[in-house]
Amino acid sequence: MRRKTSLVLLALAVFFAALSPLLRWYAFPRLAKIPANQYQEMVLEAKDATLLDYNDGMKEKKVPKVTIVQTLKGNVEASERIEQTAGKDVVVWDGLSYVQGPDGKMVSKITERYIFDAHSQEPVHATGEMVDGDPVKREGIEFKWPFLTEKRDYEYFDAQARVTSPIHYRGTQDFRGVEVYYFEQTIPWTKVAFPKVMPVAGITPETVAKTGTTRWYTTVRKFWVEPLTGAPVYGEEIHKEELRGGTLLGGREKVTAFAGHVKMREDYIESTVDLVKSNRTLVLLLTSYLPWGFLALGVLLLSLSLYLEARGRRPGDPAPAETTEPEPVTA
C-alpha cells in the first residue's frame, strides 16, 4: 500500500513539475491578449496653453485650458473579418482625438484605425489602416506596449507626423505604488498635414494649401508603463504646432497654432492605475504565482514520494517468518 501511494505521488510530482513551464512559456503567450471589444476613454488637459484664434485675425492667445479627449473603441466585426486572412488574433481600434478650447468649441478632430496582433501588439497591415482618412502603414507600437515589456527602446508610431521613431527607455520608477518603466520620445519639427476637419467653417486643407501656408509640429512624448501588462499608467506631451509662411498669416513668418504641456486628468489617472493593478495580478498569476507554485508543489510531492519509498525499504524491519510444511508422524 505504501509503495502504491509513493508511485501516485511521484506521478503527480512529474505532472505539476511539467505543468509549471508549460503554463509560463506555452499557455501564457496564447492566453494573454487584448480583447477585441475593448473600449477606453482618456481625458488630457493642457493648462495655461497657447491657442490660435482663427476668428480674430489669426492671433495667438493664452487660454486657461485646452482639453483633449481620446477614445479607442474595439471594432469586433472588422477584427473578425481581418482574422480570416491574417491567420491570427487581431484587434481593430477605431480611435478619435477630439481637441476643444476653453469655450468648448472644437479645435481639431482626428480619427484613426489601428490594427494590431492581439498577443504581441505588433501592427497588422490590412485595408482600412489609416490616420485622419489617409492610408498609413504603421511600423512599431502605438498606445500600448507588449506584455512583459523589456528595459529597452521600442519603435513607436507618431500619428501626427505619420512616422516611426525610437521611444527610449529612461529608467524604472515608482508611480503611485506601481513599478513602471519610463519611456520618452522626441519628434523634431516636422511638416505635417492639416486636419481634414478645420475649426472654422469654409476653411479646408485644400483652401489653406492654396495660400502656401504649412503646418509644423514637434513634441516630447512621455509614458510611464507598467511592464507586466504593457499598459501606460500615465502620459504627458510637451506639444507645439505652428503655421508657417503663405498669405494666410498676413505677412507673418509663423504663428503658434497650439503650445502646451498636455497631462492626463487626475480622475483618469486614478482609474487607470486601479485598472492596471487589477490586470497586473492576472498576469502575475500566469507568469509567476501558478508556475512557481506548481513547481514547488511538484518538489514537495517528489520529496514525499521518496520518503514513503525509503520507509517501505527500511532494513531494520523484521523479516517475515518462514512457513514450513508439517512433517509426517511415524509410528
Overview of this structure, please?
The longest helix is centred in the last third of the chain and has 47 residues. The two termini are 47 Å apart. The protein is built from 4 helices and 12 strands. Helices cover 29% and strands 39% of the residues. Helix 1 packs antiparallel against helix 4. The radius of gyration is 31 Å and the shape is elongated. A 12-stranded antiparallel beta sheet has the order 6-5-4-3-2-1-12-11-10-9-8-7. With 331 residues, it is an alpha+beta fold.
Quick tags:
alpha+beta; twelve-stranded antiparallel beta sheet; elongated; 331 residues
Strand content: 35-45%
Distinct helical segment count: 4
Estimated structural class: alpha+beta
For the largest sheet, list the strands in their spatial order.
6-5-4-3-2-1-12-11-10-9-8-7
Rg for CA atoms: 31 Å
Oligomer: single chain
Series of H and E elements: HEEHEEEEEEEHEEEH
Large-scale geometry: elongated
How far apart, in Å, are the first and last alpha carbons?
47 Å
Write the layout of secondary structure elements.
Elements: H1 2-31, E1 39-53, E2 59-74, H2 76-86, E3 90-100, E4 106-117, E5 130-131, E6 134-135, E7 154-158, E8 163-175, E9 178-192, H3 205-211, E10 214-226, E11 231-244, E12 254-264, H4 266-312
Helix pairs in contact: 1-4
